[in-house]
Design a protein that fits this description.
heterodimer; A: mainly alpha; 7 helices; B: mainly alpha; about 75% helix
């Protein structure tokens, strides 16, 4: 068998790039970015959670979008290669969506003195998490094959509706979740850097998880 | 609770989740590699 079909290493060199980028992201969020100041002039250090919360949510959306595109490719091309991408990306999306929910909950406790509120954005994000957690459990519990891949692809294509719904939910109704506001240049730089670092980490994980899927399929 | 405690809790939790997922991924890969017929001797570096 060719090595590109049966991979020999889990992580590629990009994991080192991701590791360095994540450490720099930590510095950007904790040191480089200035403290946010409230209307009364008080520093709001808890806003630094945003530098890891927003990138986690962004990567979750990206991962579910990749699953959606790969699922359409499965239905059109009937390719198991794309099914491996869809499965791998959904699993990583769940990880980042969980991180966004947990960091958001900690932010909520600091800002609103509430761990959770049934706000439109929080509720739709939780539904999004349930949709893709079901997808991952479904794929893990069914034997891999073309039939399972097609069924999973149909589910993921329909389930993707929850992604734009979550994205626009902040604009629906009078929710508590903060709407995107203008940031100071240094804060914006730090946020954009963190988004970049998380995106590099996503692709490093996606490649490794894809390799694992290829290996599993080679065994079967 | 100190504001920095919330920030550090969030960062540490996220860092821990990322690390656990990465280690788990590597471990799953190695297990799958060992299950591969004829490749038992080739461990992941």
């Amino acid at each position: 068998m060719k090595d590109d079909i049966v991979p020999r290493r889990c992580f590629g060199p990009e994991i080192w790039l991701a590791g360095v980028a994540m450490h720099l992201a930590l510095l950007a969020g904790l040191k480089y970015a200035p403290s946010a100041i409230s209307a009364s002039g008080e520093p709001m250090e808890f806003q630094r959670i945003m530098y890891f919360h927003v990138p986690s949510a962004w990567v979750a959306f990206l991962a579910f979008f990749v699953t959606f595109v790969a699922s359409i490719a499965v239905l059109v091309k009937r390719s198991m290669w794309w099914d491996s991408i869809a499965t791998a990306s959904a699993e990583i999306g769940i990880l980042f969506c969980t991180m966004a929910l947990i960091s958001g909950s900690i932010w909520g406790k600091a800002a609103w003195n509430l761990w959770w509120a049934w706000d439109p954005r929080l509720t739709t994000t939780f539904i999004l998490w349930l949709v893709y957690a079901s997808y991952v459990i479904l794929r893990m519990s069914t034997p891999s094959g073309e039939r399972s891949a097609r069924f999973g692809a149909v589910y993921a294509t329909i389930g993707f509706v929850s992604v734009p719904l979550t994205y626009v939910s902040v604009k629906l109704g009078a929710g508590m979740h903060p709407k995107s506001a203008g940031l100071e240049p240094k804060m914006l730089h730090a946020l954009l850097f963190c988004i970049g670092a998380f995106t590099v980490l996503y692709f490093a994980f996606l490649r490794a998880r894809f390799r694992l899927e290829q290996l599993r399929r080679a065994i079967q | 609770m100190n504001q920095w405690a919330y920030v550090m809790s969030a960062y540490i939790l996220i860092g821990t989740m990322i690390s656990i997922y990465g280690i788990g991924l590597r471990s799953r890969f190695r297990r799958a590699q060992k299950a591969m017929p004829g490749r038992e001797d080739e461990a992941d570096e």
